[in-house]
Amino acid sequence: MAKxxxxxxxxxxxxxxxxxxxxxxxxxxxxxxxxxxxxxxxRFLAPPNTGIQLTALLNPWQQxxxxxxxxxxxAQSVEVTAEIQIAGPYTFxxxxxxxxxxxxxxxxxxxxxxxxxxxxxxxxxxGTVEIQVLxxxxxxxxxxxxxxxxxxxxxxxxxxxxxxxxxxFKVASGQYTVxxxxxxxxxxxxxxTASVSPTDITLEEGSTTTLIVSYGHAQxxxxxDVTVGQLSPPLDGEQLHIQVAAxxxxxxxxxxxNNHTTSLRRLPSSGTATVDAVLTMNNTxxxxxxxxxxxxxxxxxxxxxxxxSSTEIDSSSxxxxxxxVTTDLEPTGESIAFRLVSTDMTAFIYSKEVAxxxxxxxxxxxxxPGKYTVRASGFIKDGTVYATQVADEIVVASxxxxxxxxxxxxxxxxxxxxxxSYLSFxxxxxxxxxxxxxxxxxxxxxxxxxxxxxxxxxxGGYLADDPATTKxxxxxxxxxxxxxxxxxxxxxxxxxxxxxxxDSDRLLQNADGLEHSFGNLILSLQLxxxxxxxxxxxxxxxxxxFLGDNQQAGRTPAYSMPVVEPLTQALAYRRVDAIVPFTIxxxxxxxxxxxxxxxxTVAPExxxxxxxxxxxxxxxxxxxxxxxxxxPITNAKKIADYVKSLGVYDVAPAPDxxxxxxxxxxxxxxxxxxxxxxxxxxxxxRFYDFVKTVALELKTPVMPxxxxxSRIPHADEPVTTASLEPDHWGTGGTYIFGDPAIxxxxxxxxPVVLDIKPAALVQQENVESLFYSSAPFDLSYPAYDDFPLRxxxxxxxxxxxxxxxxxxxxxxxxxxxxxxxxxxEAPISLxxxxxRRGTTHLLSSSL
Length: 847
What we know:
This protein has 847 residues and is α+β, with helices and mostly antiparallel strands. The strands form 9 sheets. Strands 21, 22, 24, 25, 27, 29, 30, 32 and 35 form a 9-stranded mixed beta sheet that branches. Strands 43-42-41-40-39-38-37-44 form an 8-stranded parallel beta sheet. A 5-stranded mixed beta sheet has the order 14-11-19-17-16, with no helix packed on it. The two termini are 52 Å apart.
């Protein structure tokens, strides 16, 4: 194996907590160039307890993915092994660089780390692992595959072998722990415990190590597939609560919608099992009870309407629940679905269609005293949301004194110029992949990029050109072409003043900086218009963090700042023949109106919106306070009131939409969880409650913006503490798109993730306790089904270093692409009320 040379140095300005190692000058020892066909392997030493991220700058640009593992060497260092996957062949140039972001101390003499790099083309130095597998203990296991897992540096290597045979594998040299998986048949009706010897090996380059696998006695079980068919009304849209009891085992409890099969495995192979399905709706109890003889086989159970009986329950002690319906809408014959779901009694529901008409009504049937969650979903007609405002929970008192207020109001129109008439998903681009392969694979409907050179308004001077704008418009057109003409809107994120980094008062008073940034916004608007052939040239999100920072600082609409003169000078410089209206004043209020007027004057065909933050009320920590269900609504109203005070959406020419920012980071990365952004299912629930209220209060369609699309890793995936940072795991994508492999069981989440300890403001010891605080939850199904009813017309996924749809950030990009692509086969219309295709509601917890 020819030796590969390289040069690695410490990057500029390392700190106690972070630095970079930069590898360049990659060549063979004789000076010839290195070509890889599949991967470049890199081994090196790094500081302990480190998180590592790789940025590969290759010329020409290449699609790169990577995995990183590490194992402790001593108190000073860990040995890192990185596999850099390149869709080769690719020949390295001496100017190519690999920049390793190290969450560790590289100050002082870092030669121990910089001098340790070893590079290998396509394969690591290797030896041979010979696996001898003894015969199976039961003929039913013939055809079953045995898995042997070798783990080095936290990264597992799974090897599949056949019982009764000897198989050899070429494996990278090093120290491994060895585990043998259980041998099972297809339906887990027969299993056998496998043992492997030895369980720890050191594999030398060129050597052979032998493993021997043997089996214990076979164990036999029954398996059940319980299928709920298409039930008749009123059960056709409901979930049945099902309990399966078999022998002395703890009963299996789950909830099943219509047309769904739940698989139960490893039940006793003899005796009987009872399958009890129940749901009580409007004081009618629906039940199905079946008894099954168990055997060592797969048994299929069907629950159809013909197997369900109903009976009225005793409601003599129940009470009427008055509902005070108020609305400013004229009666149209439309109605909303109203539901009470008991949290005290299993599978106990009240449901009624409520007419849109003011007055006091009841459910038409008495209600059992107890605690209930309240659901009233609203509807959509001709693109306009008609939404409800009602308490999330109610305790129905036994003395009949309880009552409920339900307000029905007109919300935003979801049909935004430039965006499709269905709920869509969009992505941020770093313009690295100008062919748009990832964007095309995800079938995105808009592409986002920060405008200008510095992405923050370039306040230091007027730009002569803005390639970011032109390239984004061209990239959107290319992706549209790749998708057979599906419209793809380019959207630029543009600052006329950047209040994201503090020192805000100085920036708001800097007339020169304001002038230049006004001028650079004009340039971006003009370039988008020139480059586009579409009716809507581009979209613009203006001044992220501006409204939040001003609200947090308590600046009033009358706050004095230069507006008219900087705007006038910018118009003159860019040769825009327009006069600043006299209604625009040198105040904060006037500044907002100036931005709105400027966009509508220079590019009336463009679509645009402002942005707000969770922390505009002072902090975003309120998201973790589960003691008050109204907090998201209260804080949303405070933010909406501040936006109204500045006339952002109330004064013509008004913007088209509003972007709402959580925080651009994946929850299971240090940038998020150490900064108090670590969400479980309940936090996301509260975030989208906040989003809905802002949309209703402003009557403006909203775009959740820079939402992390990262997913929760499954318990059996190769996750290590060292891989958390480069893998970019999180909860945002799993919440939006759903993942049955996580479902409602905490044990399905990888233990390394569950052990993450977030910042004190999260108010949880670790991620495990965070999820317990969200119980009951069910992440099996998408949450996006009701997004339009929350005023959401599109969702922007990802950020500059946050998981979206690109595969160069983290481990989720491909998964997200597949989820969006599948969704786009039947997207949710924004013109009428969506039908739920799944549910995230559990009638009982499986934790």
